[in-house]
Specification:
The protein has one domain (8-87). The chain contains four helices and two strands; from the N terminus they run E-H-H-E-H-H. The protein has helices spanning 10-23, 33-47, 55-65, 68-87, and strands at residues 8-9, 51-52. Helix 1 packs across helix 2 (33-47) and helix 2 (33-47) packs across helix 4 (68-87). The longest helix is centred in the C-terminal third of the chain and has 20 residues, at 68-87.
């Protein structure tokens, strides 16, 4: 029986890839898993999804997401998300 292609959101992969680099700009923002998930969720909601089901689709989407403009868009969404979490964290920082 043939296995169905896996559904994958490449935008999430790219956001997670850039997250540590952008986080360096915001050392004051809590780095607990909950706050990091909030940052990722906010950025992804701003950027939208980029779902693929095949290697050909993945290649096309990666070229788009790894372009200069794609990287800038992700970077800006992450920066805005970090700023939002810094202003309104869901817990008190120790």
């Amino acid at each position: 029986m043939a296995r169905e292609p896996r559904l994958r959101n490449l935008m999430e992969d790219m956001v997670l890839k850039l997250l540590p680099e952008v986080a360096k700009e915001y050392p004051e923002v809590c780095s607990c898993p909950k706050c990091r998930r909030d940052v990722v969720a906010l950025a992804l909601n701003e950027l939208g999804s980029k779902y693929v089901t095949s290697s050909q689709g993945e290649t096309r989407a990666r070229v788009e997401l790894e372009s200069r403009q794609g990287q800038i868009d992700i970077w800006l969404a992450l920066r805005a998300a970090f700023q939002q979490v810094a202003k309104v964290p869901h817990h008190q920082r120790d």
